[in-house]
Write a structure and sequence with these properties.
alpha+beta, two-stranded antiparallel sheet, two-stranded antiparallel ribbon
Amino acid sequence: MDMETTIIKIGNSQGVRIPKPMLKQCGLSGRVEMTVKENELVIRPHQRKIRENWDEAYQKMAFEKDERIVDDLSESGTKWDTEEWEW
């Protein structure tokens, strides 16, 4: 589907209106990612990057024998965490 549109002023920014059928066809809603590729604006659905690079980080920790607990309450806990909470 091709369409011609005009760049419009939106507050201090600029934008374009995207017809609902185009959004539906592309699966766009809510948050999106925008990049410029070869002088073209590319808009695609936002991809959550949950646990990205965890495998590499774990391998590095294992290699360096870094087995400390990140949530160690003795370093970062509140008084309630360390004295008042009953485990």
